[in-house]
Amino acid sequence: MEKKNISRRSFLKIFGAGSVTAVATLAGCKGGNKAGVQAAEEYKNQVEPPIGKMTYRENPKTKEKVSVLGYGMMRLPTKVNNSDEFDQEMINKQIDYAIEHGMNYFDTSPVYCQGKSERCTGIALHRHKRSEYFVATKLSNFNRDYWAADKAKEMYHNSMKELQVEYLDYYLLHAVGGSMEEFKGRYVDNGMMDYLLKEREAGRIRNLGFSFHGKQKVFDEVIALHDKYHWDFVQIELNYLDWDYANEISNNNVDASYLYAELYKRGIPAVIMEPLLGGRLANLPQYLAAELKSHAPERSVASWAFRYAGTPEGVLTVLSGMTYMEHLKDNLLSYCPLVPLSDDEMRYLDKEIAQKIVGLENIPCNDCKYCMPCPYGIDIPAIFVHYNKCKNEGSLPMGVGDAEYRKHRRQYLISLDRVVPRNRQPDHCIGCHQCEPHCPQSIRITRELHKISDMIESLKRDPLGERTV
Ligand code: SF4
Ligand code: SF4
């Protein structure tokens, strides 16, 4: 990949940096009531975020003020642990609280939450004045059936119906980046781009953009279409690990430093997704968390990542999926107001800490669930998240040479059974590869699952650790 067009130093020059004060926050985004109980325990001494202190960024086109913290509606609270029965009462309550604290950007998609996110979001937002919020949704026509113009238009109009709005504030072509052939099939050859441009002219789409996961070549070609389409905004993955290491971790990803620079030089606002990499930057191994704590004991691990994502001036808003009220409050504490990171802090994160995280060699799963559902029931993200967690905690059983092999073996097998039902574990993967094209991190899912399955098989056969796992 062509090396970054913007160095970290010029990044700092471009953005400048403010002074630093303590901001305590923490967030993570796991669904389910069990996690909710844990969240409640973890945050029992949580302070209330202040009202009237939200930081806003200006949309250069509309001049509207957008809250720097945006609500990602992809991991909504459910009534029963990990069910698909969403808790509308709680969603309403959390959206009311977010709006009361100055948040005004809500991001959803027809495919989030088993297709129910738009409806839940619409019900909650409709109880507020239309002028109090901006709603963003997407043309998520991944399935080839929806490449046909009539089906794609149906998806677009259905979004407005579900959201109970007459116009969309932000509309995105969802997950551009696989190939130009796909881009053309989904948006150009079927006339959808022309249609959406007319919808923008008519005011039913106020800002038109795309979200990106994928190859630099595709990004370059699509961003070059700015002259023709005038992208009003682009959604990218930006955090201190992806800034310089996204491409090193996966050949199919592009460093955030490159993406950001390309947007910045064209004056296109960036909407940020994955500031915490699906919680990975909040759940660092203990020794790394302790290192961050030693620099600023009053700050949480996650607050570093949130402030990193919000510091660049070309960022319009940072999306965070907030399943529980505790997450919402803690995220608000990072952005009410946002205190930008200093030059030294930026460097410390995207050089020192990021390099150490890369060295962990985790499976780069951010729990986005785009690969789900697996037709054979495998809970892909839960298996990867559990594996990474054990690895980072140093409790992965390593066979010969692992002094605590027996303890680690037992812990691994028991904890896996707790988080993933037996019939959803990796040994049930038939290797059909259907999940892989959907993974924005380009993880070779089948290969990783089979590696974990082999490891589990060894653990079961080898209780004393006499063979190497
Ligand atoms: S490869 Fe395995 S995990 Fe992926 S869809 Fe097929 S059975 Fe499911
Ligand atoms: S394997 Fe890929 S698609 Fe599936 S949850 Fe992880 S990052 Fe997302």
UniProtKB/TrEMBL annotation:
<dbReference type="GO" id="GO:0046872">
    <property type="term" value="F:metal ion binding"/>
</dbReference>
<keyword id="KW-0479">Metal-binding</keyword>
<dbReference type="InterPro" id="IPR017896">
    <property type="entry name" value="4Fe4S_Fe-S-bd"/>
</dbReference>
<dbReference type="InterPro" id="IPR053135">
    <property type="entry name" value="AKR2_Oxidoreductase"/>
</dbReference>
<dbReference type="InterPro" id="IPR036812">
    <property type="entry name" value="NAD(P)_OxRdtase_dom_sf"/>
</dbReference>
<feature type="domain" description="4Fe-4S ferredoxin-type">
    <location>
        <begin position="419"/>
        <end position="448"/>
    </location>
</feature>
<dbReference type="GO" id="GO:0051536">
    <property type="term" value="F:iron-sulfur cluster binding"/>
</dbReference>
<dbReference type="Pfam" id="PF00248">
    <property type="entry name" value="Aldo_ket_red"/>
</dbReference>
<dbReference type="InterPro" id="IPR023210">
    <property type="entry name" value="NADP_OxRdtase_dom"/>
</dbReference>
<keyword id="KW-0408">Iron</keyword>
<dbReference type="Pfam" id="PF13187">
    <property type="entry name" value="Fer4_9"/>
</dbReference>
<protein>
    <recommendedName>
        <fullName>4Fe-4S ferredoxin-type domain-containing protein</fullName>
    </recommendedName>
</protein>
<dbReference type="InterPro" id="IPR006311">
    <property type="entry name" value="TAT_signal"/>
</dbReference>
<dbReference type="InterPro" id="IPR017900">
    <property type="entry name" value="4Fe4S_Fe_S_CS"/>
</dbReference>
<keyword id="KW-0411">Iron-sulfur</keyword>
